[in-house]
Design brief:
Rossmann fold, eight-stranded mixed beta sheet, about 325 residues, alpha/beta, 12 strands, four-stranded antiparallel beta sheet, globular
Length: about 325
């Protein structure tokens, strides 16, 4: 009988993550405040599932990704990967785990070394997992290129010889070269033409089915989220303000900010008034408002919002939102 402990259902779980950055002003660059880039974020990604993390630029999505990758230390909170708490892991302890958590970057032009051929780029990852025999490496490189829809002839070419979509395929192949379980996709299609975006999204979906990958998919494009993601977490000013299964979120969005994001999607039936109200008011990042953080931009705000402390309101078995109106 096997004595192996059962694997947790969630490949990744974060609890109460926080990260602040100092705001410095003046000639002497004195610290005058702190921006709470990530403020008590908790979320989970199921094994073989995709969690979409959406929100406008500057809300803390990429900072959260860097914390999960342990490229940026957290101030508070826990990160559990495959049941192991890696929050306090040093670089040395993280090294064996890094092959299991990979990232696909937003910019396919800047994320590849222009001085290395595709074969050399992929060989770096293969050496990490112990593939050093030249013949075995060549065979594995050909397999990786085939997985992402590229010809084996690409192996001797350099990044500048490829289109943006092809470069992103190379970036995906590089991430897959070390056999990851979780791939963080940080705006992976936003720099590509619309027609190419669809191809990359379909590729990611196909790879997930074939390789049992889990994704954290960071984006501001809700059309992509609806197609690719199983669950969606909406982030605003460092906090998750709504989380639900993708279908439920699109059918019944509850937070006014989620309404605003949906209104920004090109759709003749979208409630455009919310979109306009949600983007006109300037904000001071280091001085969040009292009560609900979205209050200054919310067209439905009233005096009760000033006193709302942001606790979760359950709107269903698997749907939660930080808005008292949902209760």
């Amino acid at each position: 009988m096997s004595t192996d402990a059962p694997r947790p259902a969630d490949i990744l779980k974060v609890e109460g993550l926080k990260k602040s950055f100092p705001v410095r002003r003046g000639f002497l660059q004195r610290t005058t405040g702190h921006v709470r880039a990530v403020d008590g974020v908790s979320l989970a990604i199921g094994r073989g599932k995709t969690l979409g993390l959406v929100g406008e630029s500057g809300c803390g999505k990429s900072t959260l990704a860097r914390m999960i990758l342990k490229l940026l230390p957290s101030d508070e909170g826990r990160i559990l990967f495959d049941g192991t708490d890696i929050s306090a892991f040093t670089d040395a302890r993280m090294k064996p785990l890094r092959r299991r958590i990979q990232i696909v970057f937003q910019d396919p032009y800047g994320s590849l070394n222009p001085r290395m051929s595709v074969g050399q780029i992929l060989a770096e990852g293969l050496r990490t997992v112990g593939v050093r025999d030249r013949s075995a490496a060549a065979g594995e490189t050909e397999r990786l290129l085939s997985l992402v829809g590229l010809s084996a002839r690409a192996v001797d070419r350099y990044p500048h010889e490829f289109s943006g979509g092809q470069r992103q395929r190379i970036g995906i192949a590089r991430a897959l070269s070390v056999g990851p379980s979780l791939v963080i996709c940080d705006e992976p299609v936003s720099a590509l033409d619309v027609s190419i975006q669809a191809q990359i999204i379909n590729l990611l979906k196909d790879l997930q089915d074939r390789l049992d990958l889990s994704y954290l998919f960071i984006t501001h494009d809700l059309n992509v989220v609806g197609y690719l993601c199983h669950r969606v977490a909406v982030m605003y000013r460092g906090r998750i303000v709504e989380e639900a299964p993708a279908e439920a979120l699109f059918e019944r969005p509850l937070h006014p900010y989620t309404h605003a994001l949906l209104a920004a999607v090109p759709d003749i039936d979208a409630p455009r008034g919310i979109q306009a109200a949600a983007r006109e008011l300037p904000e001071e990042p280091a001085a969040p408002p009292a009560g609900c953080r979205f209050r200054p931009r919310c067209p439905e705000a009233d005096e009760r919002c000033d006193r709302f402390d942001g606790e979760w309101v359950r709107a269903g078995e698997d749907h939660r939102v930080r808005c008292w109106r949902a209760g």
